[in-house]
Amino acid sequence: MSLTSKIPSTPEYPSFASIFLILIAARLWVSLTDLSDILKHDQQLSSPLTSFSQLKEGIFLFNHDIDPYSGGSFRHSPLLLSFFVTALPSSRKLASVLWTCSDAVGAWALVRIWRARQNVRQSPRDVLVAASYLFNPYIFLPSLALSTSSLENTLLLLSIMFACKGKASASLFLLSSVIHLSLSSAIMLLPILLLLITDPHSHIASPKPLSTPLKKAIPLFGEFVAYMVALTLTSTLVAGSWSWIPQTWGATLTLPDLTPNTGLWWYFFTEMFDHFRPFFLMVFTVHLFIYVVPVCLKFQHDPLYAVFILLGILGTFKPYTTLSDPGLFLTMFAIFPEIYPYMRYPIVTVLLHLHASLLMPLFHHLWLSQGTGNANFFYASTLVFACANGAALVDCIWPGLMIAIGPRVEGYSIVQE
Amino acid sequence: MDNTNVETVPKLKRVLQKFQKIFRSDANIHEKRIQRRLKLVNLITRRLKAIKIILFVVGYLWMVLIPFPHLGRGTYIDENALQPGQVNTQWNWGDVHVADRYLEQLEHVRDANYTSEQRATWLREEFGKLGLSASTQSYGFSTSTSNSTGTNAYAIIASPRHSGAEAIVISASWLSRIDEGKGTINIRGVSTILALAGFLKRYSYWGKDIILVISDDYLEGMQAWLGEYHGVSQSGKSVRSTQEPKADLTTGLNAEPLKLASGVIWTALNIDYPGHSFSHLGVFFEGLNGRLPNQDLINSVERIARWSARVPVILYDHLDPREDAPANVVFSWMPKTLYEIADVKSYLYQARNVIRNVGYQYNGRGSGVHGLFHQFRIDAITLFAVPATGPHGFHAIGSLIESTLRTMNNLLERLHASFFFYILTGPQRFLKIGLFLPSAILISVAMMFHGLSTWVDAAWVQEDTDNEVSEKAASTTNKSTKWRQRPRPVIKVLCIMAVTHIFGLVLFTVISRPLFISNYQVLSPITFVVFSGIPLVIRLIPQPAPPTGAAPASSVLKALNLCFASTVISIITVLNFSLAASLTIPLGVPLVASSTSSSILLRLLKYTVYALLGLGWLIFAQDEMVKSIWYWESLRVWFAPFICIVYVPLLLQAGISCIL
Predict the structure, then answer these.
(1) From start to end of B427-550, where are the E strands?
(2) For site-directed labelling of B293, which of A128, A159, A318, B195 has its Cα 20 to 30 A away?
(3) Same domain, B58 and B98
(4) Cα separations (Å) of A13 from A7, A124, A335, B217, B602?
(5) pTM
(6) InterPro entries in the record, alphabetically (chain B) (predicted)?
(7) ipTM reported for the complex, 2 dp
(8) How far away is chain A from the Cα of B30, in angstroms, using its nearest Cα?
(9) Is B412 within the bounds of a domain?
(10) Interface size, chain A vs chain B, as Cβ–Cβ contacts under 8 Å
(11) pLDDT in tens, B155-208
């Protein structure tokens, strides 16, 4: 809050652009080492829907006139396929450069979001915000592993950035392409529409009903539907038939590939009897969407905050998560410094994340490399990770509500009726 | 609860409401709940010190009690498919004679001072004479500590009943484990393998390929053989195979590719029979990096030895004083009558086993050649024929191996069943994971509690702007008014922690240089002085004054240091319990005890203690250091980098928090 009052004056801060370039150069240097080849197959960093090797397989099949969607291995969107077949490189080194650039764009978008929220042209916190995206290990590692979830994050951040700037068409187009890449991101639609009809500034401390009529969002929604339809038709054109839909969106909804990942779905559906599957698939999917309306209602005065919370829900509960999904949510903490004093147990959350991020690779190793553990070990560690993400969610919802009441007064406590 | 329409409320609900009335009375529910929560928090915080002490005491006591004879249970076979000892063995005195003949020839080979290559060629020819496909493999090892070359010989008995997708290895290293492979030749072990080659080939019931490996040297030969076996032919490990070329460059291993290959190796038996005869069979089982083999393998061997081959099995070379009178140890500090109490004797015997286990496991080196197999997810043990004047020889060990192979042949899937976490206190007694893991976890919890309480305490400061008198008056009525919250310099402390870990990385890079290794006796003390001195020097550089009113960096550093150390300990427990348990000694109480003091001299003294605890090995354990580096460079045992990058920085942080 105090930062908003500071008048931006360029010479006082070390130049953001130069530091930003140094950060990107460091990222680029790491991404060009052999680390990428080691991490490429790590199941915590890329899921079957985002893995680079599966993307390459799809490109190979496509180039050899075989429908990549006829098998069960390629589950990327036709949009990605068409980009990689025509315009973008598929060699490892060039791909590493591309992924780093994508992260750089994402970090830049995050900085723009931060500036838009503070309504300043520059601030001393810019570097910290950029670094928290570029050097968040949860974002860095999937990007090194060339998981396409990094690209999804960038597109989503760009979409939010344009929404903050009020550029409806760009924002909605990018959002519809994100949804094409990963269907679960559809939960971001409502908060982004709200963001478009209001402003991104911090109103978190002064809750009030939505001032602009919701009617304004209807044409925007129409525009979004138009983009979705256009992209769907493009995808069909690329793939040559409708067969891509069950392989990409369908995979999100029916979970055909139970490769372990950091999420909560795979183990549950591995253990389940087949006749319960459709019901629980419905429950899990609905559960993801159930939060959208309440969160948007509660934080209608600050839709960017609703975006933040829903990102956390997406990172915790979506099918086929990689580390970059919760990573994006955790990085977003950097642009809401006003909530820090109201956070309840930040150290507990941090320690939970420390434990989870050490336990997950360890138990993965015990199960799949060393052979002394089993699937339950890794699942237990993903549960710890889910708890850590849940704690982080509580740590953003609680202060988001408490900030309106003001600082804690000794001897008083607040309860919800 | 409001008065709802009584008629419509079912009876059960009414009863429930009555109960609720009793428990909740008429007061505000929320108020009650808040008071209850406050009471609970007060209860815990007021007794926090006692809780911490209890956790520490129980944790350490538990560790001491691990060898207690009434803890734990008897071993059992978990995998029903194994059926140990259910077959009639065919190994007879004729085969023993064959083994004796091989022994004579090997003695000639030994006395004629054959080179490694000549020896391997001879072994290959012997395997060839039996009609087996056999080959040799030359290798060279060059690390910053040592160089060695050698040649392995191996042969494969192709499975007559199967495609050879799986394999069992029987191996013998040329040098015995006595004195850690310093020169005693495992001559009868090698003869056993040769005799078994001809024997096993005669039978048609093998469902898995049997690979016979006679590796050169002690560990090096087997490492070269296994590395090539898995780098080239086991394509199932795609991740490993991509790493292998790089790993080979850094380990300095230069091995010839294997000409013959077989399937996935599931189990391996390593035979170590250096003496003339043996009285007991010792089982060595700890693998590299603290991995243990599936307990079913050990239990099967133990049962077969006991019931089929009639050889007593012991752990390591520890004779059981309860069964062998000569094994009784006389402790000068202990009266003989006390020692004769059954439980005391059992405790001391089991403690000896547990300590030996910890010694092999904590530094990740494993207890012998079988340990190398563990890198590739192969369950392996060494059978050590404890040298004695009798009564057992080739007959016993041959039939034992035959029966064990038959048992392993029964397996249709890898040994699994979570039977990998145990502490063997005796050949027939063990502790399950739940009986030993909590000891280290309790200590880590105590450290976490202390870290969290330090963290919370750092956020509060007593206001002393008011004069003393009024404060005293206020303290009785309203204590909380004089406490003020203050910011904690987290970023600065995290930077200090990150720098210490980078510092550890630098330390590791320095001590693993060939230049350092070749002059380590001179350079180690210098390194100790330099690396423990740098934080002091940095401390002397004038720093910008901390913002007034902020918490001191030292207490925040201590809090985060404890939290991190606790996390490290609790996570290492599942990977290598012995290491975690050993870490609780230098990290547990010492880190909790760190604190600043007003006197500069005392601060420096404290820092020196932590520096010695963290870096003292540079002075006091130089040979161990060089060995650990060798193990890292050639076998990827991560103990040395772990000590440098995690352990040393943790203690340095505690030291720094004393001088900050």
Answers:
(1) 429-432, 460-462, 483-485
(2) B195
(3) no
(4) 12, 6, 18, 64, 42
(5) 0.88
(6) Gaa1
(7) 0.88
(8) 7
(9) yes
(10) 55
(11) 999 988 888 889 999 999 999 988 776 778 899 999 999 999 999 999 888 999
